[in-house]
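Chapter review: from sequence to fold.
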Amino acid sequence: MSERRFPGIGLGVDVHRFGGQGPLILGGVEVPHATGLVGHSDADVLCHAVADAVLGAAALGDLGEHFPSDDERWRGASSLEMLRWIVTLLPPRGLEVQGVDATVIAEAPRLAPHRSRMEESLSSALKLPAGACSVKLKSSDGLGLTGRGEGMAALAVASVGRVPSASSP
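The token string follows.
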């Protein structure tokens, strides 16, 4: 039997609307804002996109398969903790996250002051060195649900590869 192949690169996309009761959490970082995002967990749109990208890159399904929204165990759960759990699925398969590039799309609040903390938080959860996780911030120039301030969106690409063996040069 041949070795199971995996894509190696995964894409994650997530969208949540504003109006949640909790704080606004992005990449595991609390960002001051009048309202949070609506979701079953903490609605961290950035963590959700990154998690789906990692799962896709490792051919391990999607976030909804591992954390179904009808399962009360995940109500209000930390998406950063969910991401940490997903990372534990990789080593038994001989895999590791190699890098992540993500983009948050929103008109408000101003996210630039929080970018480095988001990158640090995600890097830690993904067991990546500094600089291997990039978060970019974009507006949609007043267009669509993000432009009207109704919610936020995030996209992420993750690279997952084989863990180098101890005998590798």
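Two observations follow directly from the output. The mean pLDDT is 93. The chain has five helices and seven strands.
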